[in-house]
Amino acid sequence: MNAPPDGLPVYRVLTGPDDEKFCRRVSEAVALGYQLYEGPAVTFNGQDVIVAQAVIWPTH
Q1: For the DUF1737 domain, which residue ranges apply (predicted)?
Q2: Cβ–Cβ contacts within 10 Å for residue 38, how many?
Q3: CA nearest neighbour of 12 among 30, 21, 50
Q4: Which of 14, 35, 53, 60 lies 20 to 30 Å from 45 when distance is taken between CA atoms?
């Protein structure tokens, strides 16, 4: 597949609280064919740990 399915962009940043829902979203992106780009970014907003993970669609 040369392009991501369903018109999704080649580059995506998934963000959210560090919970099961976020982990499932990242896992679903990987299952679609996306690759993790670098490591995650993590911060604390005073209440929750917030994570950001970039994913890219392989071009080769």
Answers
A1: 10-56
A2: 8
A3: 30
A4: 35
